[in-house]
Design brief:
By secondary structure, the protein is of the alpha+beta class. The protein contains 5 helices and 12 strands. The chain has helices spanning 44-48, 61-79, 134-144, 147-153, 160-182, and strands spanning 2-4, 14-22, 25-35, 88-89, 95-96, 101-108, 111-118, 126-131, 191-197, 202-207, 220-228, 231-236. It is globular and about 50 Å long.
């Protein structure tokens, strides 16, 4: 799914990070960081030149570390374009990307991943990373999948809990991709999984309701996913008109 360059050591609690591109869409760049929250130090923000938001002053160590790791990945990708503007947050907590760019940030346990694309590429990337918790998947399945989706997932060669996790993560990634375009949060029943290819790491989500004139009910979005241990990463990158931003 990703073509990475060799890993590099990161600052402080980030023991390594790596950058690259999406295999099927090299216009979109990716950065992934692996970290140890127990090594977190608040002075890393100033040392790395990353803005420390006031909203995190009283946050838990884990939240501070996750936010830093995500913004560190943003910093690495934007530097490739000689852009050194900080990625802050809108009031709705979504990333405020520098002019001319769009992207997506996700983190789970001790890793963070970011996708970035120039607006002129026409892509709107969304990424999500989730860690498998089998019991939680079983107990919450009805919250994010319909009976029809569950019947489809049971035909997959994936374990039941893995198939559920891929579906949950896929919807999160798609909604991140669409949020800048439709400007509203989406419920899990707005889209249903219509394809899940375990061999190729491909999937499709189909809208169950219209979101805009450009995205009517029945619109298909094709995405990718992969497991690394018990962590799944999914991404979507629909190509859209630049006027939508």
């Amino acid at each position: 799914m990703f073509d990475f360059m060799p890993s590099q050591p990161g600052p402080g609690f980030i023991h390594q990070f790596r950058c690259g591109t999406l295999s099927h869409c090299p216009e979109i760049t990716v950065c992934q960081a692996f970290f140890d929250t127990s090594l977190w130090q608040d002075d890393l923000y100033s040392a790395a030149g990353i803005v420390f938001p006031a909203t995190l002053v009283n946050a838990a160590r884990k939240r501070k570390a996750e936010y830093f790791a995500g913004r560190f990945c943003c910093q690495q990708l934007l530097a490739n374009y000689e852009v050194h503007t900080a990625v802050l947050s809108h009031q709705d907590r979504s990333p405020a990307w520098p002019a001319g760019f769009c992207g997506s940030i996700s983190h789970t346990q001790n890793q963070a991943v970011v996708l970035l694309a120039p607006i002129h590429s026409g892509f709107s990337p969304g990424v999500d990373a989730e860690t498998l918790a089998s019991r939680i998947m079983r107990e919450t399945a009805d919250m994010f999948t319909s009976p029809e989706e569950q019947a489809r997932l049971k035909q997959s060669p994936l374990d039941w809990e893995q198939a559920l996790l891929v579906t949950f993560s896929a919807k999160e990634a798609l909604f991140k991709s669409l949020y800048p375009l439709v400007k509203r949060y989406l419920d899990f029943d707005c889209a249903q999984i219509s394809e899940l290819d375990a061999g190729q790491g491909r999937l499709a989500l189909t809208l169950t309701q219209p979101l805009s004139a450009a995205f009517p009910a029945g619109y298909h979005f094709h995405g990718e996913w992969q497991f690394a241990g018990d962590v799944v990463t999914t991404c979507f990158y629909p190509q859209v008109s630049q006027q939508k931003y």
